[in-house]
Amino acid sequence: MSYVALYRKFRPRIFDDVKGQDAAVTTLRNQVRTGKLQHAYLFCGTRGTGKTSAARIMARAVNCEHPENGNPCNECPSCRAILSGSSMNVTEIDAASNNGVDNIRQLIEEVQYRPASGNYKVYIIDEVHMLTPSAFDALLKTLEEPPSYVLFILATTEAGKVPPTIQSRCQRYDFRRIRSSVITERMRELLTEEGAEAEDRALAFVARKADGSMRDALSLLDQCMAFYMGRELTYERVLSALGEADTAAFGKLLRCLIRRDAGGAVRLFEKLVGGGLEIGQFVNDLIWYFRNLLLMMASPEGIGVDLPEESKEELRTLAAQTDEAYVMRCIRVLSDLQNTMRYASNRRVLTEIALIRLARPQTDTDLESLRERVRELEGRMEQLRAGAVPVPPPAASSSVSHEEPEEEEEGPSEVLPAAPEELREIAANWGRVVGSLQDGFLRNQLKDAVPHFKPEEAEPKLYVEIRADLSERLVADPEKARELEAEIVRQFKRSVPVELYRQKDKSPGAVRIGVEEAMRGRIAMPAEIADDEEFEE
Question: Is beta strand 150-156 parallel, antiparallel or unpaired with respect to 462-466?
Answer without folding.
Answer: unpaired
